[in-house]
Each structure stands twice: as C-alpha cells, then as structure tokens.
Amino acid sequence: MVQLYGKNLSRRDVAAHAGDLSQFAGVRSMTLDDGLERGIRMLEFRTGTGLRFTVLVDRAMDIADCDYQGKAIGWHSPSGFRHPGLHEYEGEGGLGWMRSFSGLMVTCGLDHILFMYDAPADNYVYGPRETIKQSIHGRVGTIPARLTGYGERWEGERCILWAEGRVRQATVFGEHLELVRRIEVEVGTNDIRLSDKVVNLGFYKTPHMYCYHINVAHPVLAEGSRYLAPIKDVVWAAHAGENYCKQNVGYRTAAAPLNPFHEQVWQHEMAADGNGEVPVALVNDALGLGFEVTTRKDQFPCMYEWQNFQSAHYALGIEPSTNHVLGQAGARERGEMIWLEHGDERRYDTRFRILTSADEIAASEARISGLAAQPAEDYPEPSGNFEPIRGRA
C-alpha cells in the first residue's frame, strides 16, 4: 500500500484520486538554464510526504537539493551547482574542486580521494606519464552521466521512484573506470536508497578509492544540533594538539555560524550492527528533524565528520570512506589501496533517511547508542590507532 496523507492507498485508490501519479509524487526531468548552472540536466523526485530532492545527471548523478516540507536538508554553498564545462580540475594547485563543491551529496573518487597527490603511473605502462596528478577528492564528481532510465515502477501495491545512470572516468594510457548508480525511493516514505557499482572496464591494474561527502545544512544543522554515531574510538582530529579546544567546538554538538572558523575534520572508528550496517545521524531536537545515513562497514570501513561552521559556508559533513584519512600515500604504504583488474567491481549500498519527529529521532539514537556509546566528552584524545582495513566486500 502507498501511505499518503495519513491513509493507506491501493494502486487503484491512487488512480481514482488523480489523473496522474505526478499530482502526488514522481520523477521529473528538467534542465537548468541560467548562470553557472546553465545546461545541467536534473531529475526532481517527490515522494508525497513532503520530501523533495534533485539529482544532477551532469554531475555524476549526485544529489543536489534536498528538503522536507519546506525545510532544507542539503547544503547550498556559494559555488552553486556549477556546470561541469566550467570546472578546472587541476586549478589552484588542486583546490579548484572547491569551486564546484555544493549539494547534499558530492561523490569523491574513482581512483583518488582526500588531498592532492602525485600518484605513480607505472601500472599504466606509458613512459611519458610518470605520475598522475591528483587534485583534492578526485575527478568523478563533475563528470556527466549517461542517463539510462528513470521513472515510476509499481511492485504490487508499492510504487518505487527510480533513476539510473553511468559515469565513465577514463583516459588513454590510464584508468578506465565506470560508476553505475541507481537511486530509489518508495512513494509515501522518506528513505532514499543509493546503490553504486564501480567497475574497471580497462585492462590496466587500476587503483580505486571512494568517498561520499554528505553535507547537511541549516535548519537540521543549527546551534545545539547533535551528531550521533556508534563511535568506538576517536582516531584522529585535524586540529588536535595545542589548539584542540581553540575554537570551542567539540565533535558532539554544533555551534552557530562563526566568523572566522577553520574547518575541523575528525575520523571516528565506528561499530556496526549484526547486519554490518553503520548508522550516523545529525539531529535538531528543537525542530524534531534529523538526517540519518546508513552505510556498510565492509564497503566503507572509515568515517569522517566534517565541521564547516564558517558563516555563509555553514554545513556538517558525514563522510563514509573506503580509506583512512591518511590519504592515497598512506593507503599505498599500508597495503590498503584497492586495486581493480579488468572486470573487477566494488559495490556500495547506502540509505539516507529523514527523521521527521522526536519519536523517530529517539528510535535512531537508541539504535546508534545500542551499538557503541560515543565519548561523553567534547574533545576526546585522538588515539592515532588506524585499524588495518580487512574483509572488504
């Protein structure tokens, strides 16, 4: 049954109440036509609950806008949803990526994440290319997808909204990787399901690193909003040391917008449930509104928390990752780099859920705290214990 407006409706009931499902929910294709966003293809999803989100087909099928009953969930940075044709991947010494950094979700990869790195290129057997110059967070986030389909699908009395696309990152004498992304959400619900597959279509042994930069914004993020996670250990903090408490912002509770503020990044070691899932949430108790991300520990063994509380850049990032914050150099040195031969693939199954009431927040918190009790202090001493990554799916 489809749950709409407090009632359980059959497919026949839905059809009886409107000439088309789009009156209540659906997926609509459109193209942005002004400013730096001009020409970007976009899909708009509406589930009938008040949840609306958009998928940027021309930016790796990433999720841009997201709001619930008029309340913003996803982050809009000053850079906007810039057309990929304007992107300069190697600009500003590798930091040009920041000029295209916006939205609820930005995909990082496919062969590199984190800060700039000159990767050895001997695996590509091409003498003139001694290194691969990697900018921050990789190339994939500004590559247009080939849209293979979208729409509504009925499964008995349930209706699924969906979209699928393929994003190819490739060069001559280099990597030939493809991301196949499928996004689904059931009408009458607030659960977005993301299914990704990264496959090596080439015949060179190719490195693979992957991360989601999931950016939650005001009003879910506000002074006093709480970060909930099954933290077994605080492994690392970018700002640890003599100035650990300088900005008076710990890992647990959000501050109001600050000026100035320097970003803070933490890596936490998370516990998983019996199904291997790791839930993390940001909640605003005053509004009874939250956002929960659930990943798989065998797919994303690492998790970062990004605090960007600078005025006009105000966001908190939930960042599941295939690798430690040590970056590509650390992954190579520790033997933790993923290497894909021809036809090898990696899968990633993730769920985003809007928490719409105090009861749903309490249930999420109970689930999370039941896996591990996160540190009670705001500034736990980082252990520096980067656990070896084993048992990848």
UniProtKB/TrEMBL annotation:
Which organism is the protein's source?
Answer: Pseudohoeflea suaedae
Query: Pfam families in the record, alphabetically?
Result: DUF4432
| Superkingdom field | Bacteria
Instruction: Write the protein's name.
Output: DUF4432 family protein
Checking InterPro entries in the record gives: DUF4432, GH-type_carb-bd
Region Disordered, residue ranges: 369-393
Q: Which GO terms describe its molecular function?
A: carbohydrate binding
